[in-house]
Specification:
about 325 residues, mainly alpha, Rossmann fold, Tyrosyl-Transfer RNA Synthetase, 2 domains, three-stranded parallel beta sheet, two-stranded parallel ribbon, 5 strands, binds tryptophan
């Protein structure tokens, strides 16, 4: 892959089947990026262990499901390098070198780490301290990114602090070893049309308010029916207000054409359209939109070894680039060769 394209890298934890929030917030964007950049997308299974080291029974399935969703949604293993973090030992080695030069207080002040620590403590009474691995999580993420000396990392706003830390560590490396080896990685913020969960909260697996990419039509309809609408519209004959329709109308803004949105608006305001019918129409729109993706997902599933081959082959390709970069690091530091 010798070229002068800018390098993009990003990853996701193996949380299992992905939902529509992942699709609009992440995957659609990655799919576009792979047309233009040299892209590395990986499943962060080591990162999953930082908090779930004792819940590994679903690890294999979750990795499989994430990779399957990625491919079904149009990530293309011939355009992007799609790999599994734990199949790339170069990242682990780079992590050691980076951990030596990272001041402890840089890691300590990481904002997401504080949140994570709190969640951990709330959940598991017997885990009173952060593990060494969880503590080092931002440095591991830095190692992921610098394994490819990435120019840009597309992430959500919650991960920007980590990419800034990556830049700080890279700069420190360059200063210490008097080099300009690492580039200044920049976050690439996605303009996400934020898709709420069906209950109005952030869409998430653990909140049980999501629609999965892989849900079938019936399940999609069943879930859409639970979506929050205008809470003041109690009876079918009440006139509604789409501006107060917390969830369902916000979905229309993503799934409906302008004309359709107008039509829904009018129907709601005049009470000619009831919430139940509106939801049915919305579910149809969602199902139409995801039909090809769901179909492809079913096709891909027919060869149970396909996903594994993609991940192994992708990891092999990733290792070629990561090894080159690591060799340079070893050189710059001045290790015995
Ligand atoms: N920290 C990210 C998350 O929890 C996953 C991740 C790990 C990542 N390493 C990365 C994302 C490198 C982008 C680049 O979602």
């Amino acid at each position: 892959m010798e070229n002068n394209k800018k390098v993009i890298m990003s990853g996701m934890r193996p949380t299992g089947k992905l939902h529509l929030g992942h699709y609009f917030g992440v995957l659609e964007n990655w799919k576009k990026l792979q047309e233009e950049f040299e892209c590395y997308f990986f499943i962060a299974d080591w990162h999953a262990l930082t908090t779930k080291y004792n819940e590994t029974s679903s690890m294999k399935q979750n990795v499989y499901d994430v990779a399957l969703d990625w491919l079904a949604c149009g990530l293309d293993e011939n355009k992007s390098v799609i790999y599994l973090q734990s199949k790339l030992p170069q990242t682990a080695e780079l992590h050691i070198y980076l951990s030596m030069i990272t001041p402890q207080n840089w890691v300590e002040r990481d904002p997401t780490l504080k949140d994570l620590a709190k969640i951990m403590k709330d959940k598991q009474e017997n885990v009173s301290d952060l593990s060494y691995g969880l503590f080092g999580y931002p440095v591991l993420m830095t190692a992921d990114i610098l394994s490819f000396n990435a120019d840009f990392v597309p992430v959500g706003i919650d991960q920007v602090a980590h990419v800034e830390l990556t830049r700080d560590i890279a700069r420190r490396f360059n200063n210490i070893y008097k080099t300009d080896y690492f580039v200044e990685t920049k976050p690439k913020l996605t303009e996400i049309p934020l898709l709420k969960g069906l209950d109005g909260n952030k869409m998430g697996k653990s909140f049980n308010n999501d629609i999965k990419i892989s849900d079938d039509e019936e399940m999609t309809l069943k879930k859409v029916k639970t979506g929050i609408t205008d809470r003041n519209r109690m009876r079918r004959d009440d006139k509604g207000n789409p501006d107060n329709c917390e969830v369902i109308y916000s979905y229309w803004k993503i799934f409906g054409s302008e004309d359709e949105q107008k039509e829904i608006c009018q129907g709601c305001k005049s009470a000619s359209l009831g919430c139940a019918d509106c939801k049915k129409m919305l579910a149809d729109k969602i199902n139409q939109r995801f039909a090809p993706i769901r179909q492809k997902r079913i096709e891909l599933q027919k060869d149970p070894d396909y996903i594994r081959q993609v991940l192994i082959e992708g990891s092999r390709k990733a290792a070629i680039k990561a090894q080159e970069i690591l060799d340079g690091v070893v050189d710059v530091i001045g290790m015995y060769k």
